[in-house]
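Weekend entry, working from home. Most of the wet-lab plans are on hold until the incubator is repaired, so I used the time to fold the two sequences that have been sitting in the queue since the last round of cloning. Logging both here for the record. First:
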Amino acid sequence: MKIFLLLAFAYIFFVSCKKDPDPPVSDSKNDLTIKTGILNQSFVGNGPQWGGYDALQTWTGSPTLTEADWNTLYQRVRFMRPPLVRIMVDQGWNYLVNGKYDPSKSDAVLIKILDFCEVEGITVMFGEWGHQGGTSINTTWLENSAKFLEYLLNTKNYTCIKYFNMVNEPNGDWSSINGNYSLWKSLIEQFHAKLVTKGIASKVKIIGPDIAIWDANLTSWVINTNFDLGDKIGAYDIHTYPSETEVRDGSYKNMVKAYKNAAPPAKEMLMGELGFKYASNSTLGQQNAQRIAGDPYASSDCNMFVYDAFYGIDMADAVIQNMLAGYSGSILWDLDDAMYNIDGGGSTKLKRWGFWNSLGSEKFGNAADENIRPWFYTMSLLCRYFPQGTKIFDVALPDKKGLRAIAGEKNGKYTIAIVNSNFASYEINLKMENGITLSGADLYKYVSGVGAAFTGKKDSNGFAMPEETNLTIDFSTGKSKQISVPGQSFLLFTNME
């Protein structure tokens, strides 16, 4: 009997030793959870500022780009697949010839871009850079502006133009409005009356107030716009050019959220321009000034870090914070260096903010400047894989500096974007409250290096390619995916086409 008991105890001990250990319990402090709560029911989309090219005739002797340059532009924008772009015009560049109204002036550039947007299903935020008339309103210009919009909507039959933005940044002393809210309000009222008279008020939403902000102290423009103009305003927008500090520490989200909260909740709120500007006494501000001084074609209005890989991280962080704040989309400033110069005339001092310079070889003595810059990698993915109509979900983030994430769903397909603008790496547990299994997913990964260097797969055109393909991620109850998020990195999971 004793021998039997000893053998039984030995067997139990042997079996217990061979038993697989319990799986490690994940640390909930590292959980990044995609919630079921919806921040935005019908997302409009992210996309670039496009248009301009107003100095082409002076620079090249031609009013338009070469066929090869147009084809390259179309190929790149087609990969980016932006749901939304912003295009701004001016009477002298687009519909006034020798003092007479002539919309054919736009055939060489604007019409080619709008044709592309129409075919590709890209929504256009369209508008006038400024009004004519100084402290009053030039009624001839106002009629021509409305007539030009009517021409595009009715004669050219563009359905892609969904928003009209009357006057860029009216709160600024650089604006034609010079910060005069009453003048801007009167202009909107008169322009809206023109749209009603022409029978096109139902075809386009006036968007405003389009103010440039640096803190939360100008929400009165949004509040007053709603109170004074009511349904004459169909959507709302602001512009922001934050510093790297407020984006990386996350305070940027709280600032832009104040403007979203000031707008009517039933109407879309868009970021009408987004870029970075640095304090003149900061390290990046001083470096930017030095780079401008060393570039014969750079104006004072440039961000020279569009050439650096870290800019792709900072911009991704800012875009994601806008989405977390409930914005329906962001306009990235901007697409192409060749679009704008500093004086709107013949100056070769460019506003360098783009993904490339289409005239690098033809005019600016640098064929390499036509190549895609690093930040296109992250921005193209945030445009392409958050299509118009996506439901944007709230996210519970772990307390980790510089870590942000956003997720969206459309037609049963999902995208999850994660950015880490800090230099430390993190291990996180990615979860989804709805407990789905994400199948057939691709993982894109971009890690910023020194200067223009970054880690991220690309094809022969310079377009982003997935690091891993056909992934299956089980988010059923209690399950998560453990992810390493390197410092200064961007990850995007998607099973969208």
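Second, folded right after the first finished:
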Amino acid sequence: MRTRLLLVDDHEVVRLGLRTLLEAEPDMEVVAEAGTADEALEKVARYRPDVVVMDVRLPGKSGLEACRLIRQQHPTTQVVILTSYLSEEFVSHALRVGAAGYVLKEVGGTELVNAIRSAREGQVAFDPHTASQMVARLRKLEAHIEESAFKGLSRREMEVLVLISRGKSNREIAQTLSLSEGTVRNYVSAIIEKLGMRNRIELATYAVRHHISEWMPDVED
């Protein structure tokens, strides 16, 4: 079965190049193109692509905001971010809104094709440059956490705890992190046990007192 693709970039020449590259693959088919986030949302609803290949910087809504909406409204459609920008903030944000891949435009076509195939299978893929930066960032974060008041918590548990400290409900946390409410409840229970707290209020108080936002500054509501 061929993977149905939607290409989203505000430059027509870029879209043409991507179409030429991807339609040369026997298992891929470009079903539509879009130049803005709003147009992308409309075409996802109309064409139901398997994978959206999308730039970060678009007129109006950003590609990351579009990714969040696509994943909420069409959870079977995966999104691969294709961009010229490599930063911890962008990559972390992309993962939080449900992107299945983050690939730099400067890398070869093979990396993009591989990322699309991985996304189609429900896996997360990065090009080598992005992967190296993310590994370094995660190692740094883990080292900090091990020395902090939040020792023993995973990155995802830290993200949940940040949102708890902001007074978010399980439903709101689930929407923000693209998780089910049941999964969020499990995370909350695990955090309470690991930190030796009795309830959600104690968790929130503890997190604020120990300045959790300084440890996880990139978590957005």
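Plan for Monday: verify the second prediction. The chain has two domains: 3-135, 148-215.
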